[in-house]
């Protein structure tokens, strides 16, 4: 089977053995925003044409490729949802030379009735749960997927019960690049003392919009060096996010890769939680699990 | 006396009678960022040269003109501070043809020890208090000055006891213009039902960074129209600010002008407070009060 985690800015393709083992992987910068109208069949053939020629007949896609801006829209499946639910809800996509299916994203509502959505993270989550790194059998867990739109996910009884999205990463970039705060920043966010000072500050009274201004005043008074200011701002924002999203000092399963993992791990530890980091290729494993359960004929 | 409220992007000059009465006012786009190095004497002469020629000999300046980027730096005066304290702390500025003094800005620290600063707002605050629109004698009050960096100010015994700054306006602009949220916005922020929905949302669990994402999902699900999205986002942000800054359902004296006044007034009312709007020319009155107490010789 071929599995493709196809997002907005990049795509990761995996060739899986019948038992789910990862045989080969490749990455492409051809995210859905780079694909011209009607160009998805050609883009898929360009990415995995040799695997198809070598005899693969099944292709399972996840991520923004199933959004309105993608190949074909796969309606969101409502939570709670498990791998079996996702396998039953895959959407067929016409393609010459293979059977192609789209995994739908998930939707939920929070207590106040505001909707929530994800596309692509659901396969990572089930891949992560299958690693068994969590205490117990991984059927009840709290997961965090750092990113420009970070997701916090509650798993109950092996299914995704609900989740919430936090615009922390995108807010950080907008504040750093497009407000007065960025003028006094020279470095990137690192998980050192300035980041921890931001985390500590996030626990004080005053609210995030007030705490943001402190990034500037600490700089004005020479108490925050320009090379530490991005770390402090990151600590403020991630600290506010973790305080809102962590329901207690439980273990949090961190899913993802890159520099955000260390920052979130530190923030979770400082809030009394235990951060457990996952594997970068979990999307392949999650797609494999769904593929095993999919009705391909 | 001549009073000039000289900020980053504009300047307002006032000619005051000896009893403090406003004789004449004029506004200029010549904020300090437009003044070339060493160009402040010429800029002042250009703004009020005819008043000086007509016999005025005293000029009192406030605002960012007293910052490191301005004419001359006037060190911050620490809170608590009243008009008499400010009058004693004015800084002389060399100028041919008149006696020029700079009113210093104020500094304070919040409970966590993070510094806070203002420059220019202090004269508006004392001008506002002098209007007597507040219950009692205006010696104890909570004031809010909306703006890209909104200030909340506690006045006790007629002096500014402390204040906090919220980057709400600048965060709104950065989020609207430089994140995915802005892609689905067509209008400006107005104090109608969408704004009130944002205020109500701000009181729910989840935190601001999570609430931000709801602006997008409500749009995706057709529950927030593009022309209402800016109002909703504004309600979210101002709602979070007001909830953090309002210490109880007391009257809040709103100081300023422009469209933000109606938004803050509505947000304060929805949180159970009473918003009282001030006069736009209060800076002139505040500078007049300080000028009366200044040692000019």
Automatic annotation (TrEMBL), chains A, B:
Pfam families: DGOK (PF05035). GO terms for molecular function: 2-dehydro-3-deoxygalactonokinase activity. Keywords: Kinase, Transferase. The keyword Transmembrane helix does not apply. It comes from the Bacteria. InterPro entries: DGOK, DGOK_C, DGOK_N. GO terms for biological process: D-galactonate catabolic process. This is 2-keto-3-deoxy-galactonokinase. It comes from Methylobacterium platani.
């Amino acid at each position: 089977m071929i599995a493709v985690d196809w997002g907005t800015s990049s795509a990761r393709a995996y060739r899986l053995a019948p038992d789910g083992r990862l045989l080969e992987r490749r990455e492409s910068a051809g995210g859905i925003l780079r694909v011209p109208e009607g160009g998805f069949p050609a883009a898929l053939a360009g990415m995995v044409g040799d695997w198809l020629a070598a005899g693969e007949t099944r292709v399972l896609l996840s991520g923004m490729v199933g959004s309105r801006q993608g190949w074909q829209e796969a309606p969101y499946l409502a939570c709670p949802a498990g791998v079996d639910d996702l396998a039953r809800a895959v959407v067929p996509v016409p393609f010459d030379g293979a059977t192609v299916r789209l995994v739908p994203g998930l939707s939920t509502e929070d207590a106040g009735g505001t909707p929530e959505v994800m596309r692509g993270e659901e396969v990572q989550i089930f891949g992560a749960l299958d690693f068994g790194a969590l205490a117990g059998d991984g059927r009840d867990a709290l997961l965090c997927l750092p990113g420009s739109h970070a997701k916090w996910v509650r798993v109950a009884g092996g299914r995704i019960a609900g989740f919430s999205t936090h615009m922390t990463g995108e807010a950080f970039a907008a504040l750093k690049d497009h407000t007065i705060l960025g003028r006094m920043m020279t470095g990137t966010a690192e998980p050192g003392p300035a980041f921890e000072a931001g985390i500590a500050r996030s626990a004080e009274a005053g609210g995030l919009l007030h705490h943001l201004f402190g990034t500037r005043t600490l700089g004005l008074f020479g108490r925050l060096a320009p090379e530490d200011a991005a770390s402090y701002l990151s600590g403020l924002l991630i600290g506010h996010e973790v305080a809102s999203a962590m329901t207690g000092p439980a273990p949090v399963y961190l899913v993802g890769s890159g520099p955000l993992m260390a920052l979130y791990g530190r923030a979770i530890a400082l809030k009394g939680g235990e951060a457990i980091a996952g594997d970068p290729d979990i999307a392949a494993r999650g797609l494999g699990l769904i593929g095993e359960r999919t009705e391909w004929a």
